[in-house]
Amino acid sequence: MNLLKLSFRNIQGRPLSSVLSMLLLATGLSTAIILQLTEYQLTKNIENTGKDVKLVIGAKGSRIDLILSSVFQIGNPTGNINYGFYQLLKRNRIIKEMIPLSMGDSYKRVRIVGTTHDYVKLYSGELESGKLFAAPLEATVGYRASKKLGLSIGDEFIGGHGMEDEVLHHHDEFKYKVVGVLKKSGSVIDNLILTPVETVWIMHAGHEDDSDYIIGSGEKNQQHDNHEHHIEEHQDDIEVDQHSNEHDHHAHDHHAHDHHAHDNHDEHTNYDYDKLIKAIDPVNKEITAIIFPHLSGNAKVGVLNNANNQPGMMAVDPAPEIALLKSKLAPFVSIIIGIAYFITIIAMFSVFIGLLNSLSARKYEIALMRVMGASRFKVLMSILFEGLMLAILGFILSLVLSHIGMEIVASWMEYEYQYEFTGWLFLPSELYFLIIALCIGLISALYPAIKAYKTDIAETLSKG
Amino acid sequence: MIETKNISHSYTNSEPINLPDISLNQGEESLVIGKSGCGKSTFLHVLGGLLVPTKGEVKIGGQIVNDLSGSTLDKFRGNNIGVVFQVPHFIQSLTVKENLLIAQNLAGNSINQAKIVELLTDMDVIQKIDSKISNLSQGEKQRVAIARALVNDPSVILADEPTSALDDMNCKLVIKLLKEQAKKKGATLLIVTHDNRLTDQFERRVEL
């Protein structure tokens, strides 16, 4: 039996008050810890995913929507742009790297993205098994997507048009085939199914009338060639066929009217994909966005200006948009921090009142300790220990609550933001909350401790 | 062993209380009798080093208690003086055994479990060693309080009205135990009381 044990026993001696104090403290601290864990993981995810994307080109619309949808795979894209523009830029020697992205389909809420191998390279994705997608309808599945969907090499699945909740219809005449699974990369590709951009065209062409794609008619081919030719002519000033967008709208209308037509073609199993792709009108070859890694200086300015001059297109630098997004989040973060502080201050009062109450009931015990030989200082310390112990216990409880809480929040966040969050991450900065807790314990115990320090033995005993 | 000279104490705004000179040798026992309000508690507090008198001198085992202050006095008190109060108070959150252990600790002595067991056996409360204080009867509490007063082998045992809250049977038992233990340890025993039941049990009596 020593002073520390005595203090602990005194805390045990008033269980309700002690538990209330600890719970309040733990609630305040764990709110702050959860916030910090979320912020840390979010920032890390944003950095991992966004750091190497220097420019994004997509359909005109909300700049932030374009960045969110194409870089972070959150929310709906702004629309589509013509693949011809991508091909045009591809011939420009000053652009070293560019990655097409084609979004809009999903399988069981996991996004299917049509792209090239450069997209995997951008996030240093490595194969866990199999190979990267090569032919149309081949799919390489991100680490977490494979876990979530239980997909492995050789599996086949049917994608649906639409993302997340709003799958409009299934492309059930074409089956994707899993050819590879990626290792964990800690970036956005973990949650995606990747396939060549051509896959998306095939899927969507599948909703056109037969004559549009089954076997290209002479007329169609002719138009195709003309189109290519047209682009080639203008490749130096990077311009796209003005008509392409009109065609585009027309195609979409067409598409809306006829998307049930494919019901009659369930028996199609072995398509000649190359033929199919060739048959697709170039104006129907669309992608959602183009992202540019490692683009800077004059090349960046050039691409930016060119894209912005195209009708229905825009180029967006992600960095200021991400900064804007962060600044929009800041007030919410402040509110949560405010709430955390508020609860923590209430906890401080709770510890204070608990100690003060218990002390007025234990006045005689304090005098008794002095009779038994305890110095004033020892009495002071025993009360401070009580405050500090409550604080440490509250802190330990807050660690348990915050990490379990984070794990619960994580499952919700993952669904909402396509990123992996975990409660089983421990940041060194959590120790900072231990210091806060100790300060709270110390501050709230200080006055009661001084009161105990000043106890007049004889007077207290006479009143006893 | 315990000696007082010309002690007088005045509380703020009241008449000074003059206290008698006493001198007891090691192992001697004495009763201090007086009506309530005549300064019995003041006398005991002064003797126990809990109250510094306005005037006069208290000597215990050759040490002038008035000369000590702060933690030195606290330590001296814990080691040399065992006090038994009228109403036995304990640290409520601790068990019987823990109350004795903390008494050893606070006096700066090392833990001696064997002594605790021996004392509680002598006091016939060994069966309650792990009980909470609230589960003890009044008589049992007073006997545990005596055990606690003795746990650091004090040279002086001071008892403030130790029997006034007890029935005749417990009263006799407590006095018997106090006397026995004082004799066993060779400690000086001083009981301050207004309880007439004790008068004929002590040869030496000081009237206040």
Structural write-up:
The complex is a heterodimer of chains A (464) and B (208). Helices cover 57% and strands 13% of the residues of chain A. In chain A, helix 2 (15-50) crosses helix 14 (376-417). Chain A has 464 residues and is of the alpha+beta class. Chain A folds into two domains: 3-46 and 332-463, no CATH class; 80-287, no CATH class. Mean pLDDT of chain A is 84; it is low at 208-268. The longest helix of chain A has 44 residues, at 318-361. Chain B has helices at residues 40-47, 70-80, 96-106, 113-122, 138-150, 168-185; strands at 2-9, 17-18, 23-24, 29-33, 55-60, 63-64, 81-84, 156-160, 188-193, 205-207. In chain B, the strands form two sheets. In chain B, strands 1, 2, 3, 5 and 6 form a five-stranded antiparallel beta sheet that branches. In chain B, strand 8 (156-160), helix 6 (168-185) and strand 9 (188-193) form a beta-alpha-beta unit. Chain B is globular and about 45 Å long. Helix content of chain B is 34%, strand content 21%. Chain A binds chain B through residues 1-3, 6, 9-10, 12-13, 362, 364-365, 368-378, 457-458, 461-462, 464, and chain B through 41-42, 45, 48, 50-51, 70-71, 74-75, 77-79, 83, 85, 87, 89-94, 98, 101-108, 111, 148, 152.
